């Protein structure tokens, strides 16, 4: 096959870049794979011709117009194997890497479960959710530990407190913001804390869903300007569902946005509802 015929069969012009050649070859491979499932003979791709054209073009670009030296049938088959199956080989390597990653994640999760099983039960589980928490993943564990310590300082009888930082931007200004919002929504859907501390904007978004426990019993113990009442789904009247704790001492020694209003709320099906209510009372009394 001469070089002009090779370009014609391959479907590119002689001034195509090397990158364009590789992209076109990938297209031929994908089209060939798709044609294996198509009963229409007109759609079949002759990969022998495509491979020959590809090798001719590559050889011409590397060595010029000199005639490609004769090679043995074995060498031609070997070249065909590495050329045609190179994408398959790369795909297998990627697949193996993914499998290894999944296995490692499962092992890590199992180890984490075993470690948690050896700990005393959490007196309360709190999720800090919204744009006021740190988005720096390198400080995530450190900040969660500090928040837990701040809570335990106020309740010496509690043995353990579990905290979850779930950053979510209020606005969307980049693809990163979109990814963070999707991740935070998944955490909200899968985690079941006893209590949430979140941006006022997010509180207004979630409170109408009926996911929070009514805090009417706390109305006489907390300042009126800290209480947030509204009607949730199936409510006939307004109930108190949130308490503002914007500058509470729980945020000591951690990075956070001070100007953001922060609302504490209790999950309707909280396992440690009484402890969560005690914590809200304590935090509301330390808020400025």
Automatic annotation (TrEMBL):
InterPro entries referenced in this protein's UniProt entry, alphabetically: J_dom_sf
Keyword Transmembrane: yes
Keywords: DNA replication, Membrane, Stress response, Transmembrane, Transmembrane helix
GO biological process per UniProt: DNA replication
Transmembrane segments: 87-107
UniProt-recorded name of the protein: J domain-containing protein
């Amino acid at each position: 096959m001469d070089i002009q015929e090779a370009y014609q069969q391959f479907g590119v012009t002689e001034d195509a870049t090397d990158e364009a050649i590789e992209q076109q070859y990938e297209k031929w491979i994908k089209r060939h794979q798709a044609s294996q499932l198509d009963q229409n003979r007109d759609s079949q791709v002759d990969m022998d011709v495509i491979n020959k054209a590809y090798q001719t073009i590559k050889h011409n670009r590397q060595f010029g117009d000199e005639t490609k030296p004769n090679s043995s049938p074995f060498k031609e088959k070997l070249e065909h194997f590495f050329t045609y199956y190179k994408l398959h080989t790369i795909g297998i390597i990627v697949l193996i890497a993914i499998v290894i990653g999944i296995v490692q994640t499962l092992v890590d999760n199992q180890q984490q479960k075993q470690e948690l099983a050896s700990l005393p039960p959490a007196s309360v589980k709190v999720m800090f959710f919204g744009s006021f928490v740190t988005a720096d993943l390198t400080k995530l564990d450190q900040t969660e530990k500090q928040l837990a310590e701040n809570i335990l300082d106020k309740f010496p009888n509690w043995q353990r407190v579990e905290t979850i930082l779930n950053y979510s931007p209020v606005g969307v200004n980049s693809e990163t913001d979109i990814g963070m919002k999707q991740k935070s929504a998944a955490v909200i859907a899968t985690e079941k804390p006893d209590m949430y501390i979140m941006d006022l904007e997010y509180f207004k978004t979630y409170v109408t869903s009926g996911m929070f426990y009514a805090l009417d019993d706390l109305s006489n113990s907390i300042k009126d300007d800290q209480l947030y009442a509204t009607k949730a789904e199936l409510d006939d009247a307004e109930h108190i569902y949130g308490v503002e704790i914007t500058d509470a001492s729980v945020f000591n020694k951690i990075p956070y946005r001070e100007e953001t209003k922060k609302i504490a709320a209790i999950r309707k099906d909280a396992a440690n509802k009484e402890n969560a209510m005690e914590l809200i009372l304590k935090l509301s009394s330390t808020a400025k």
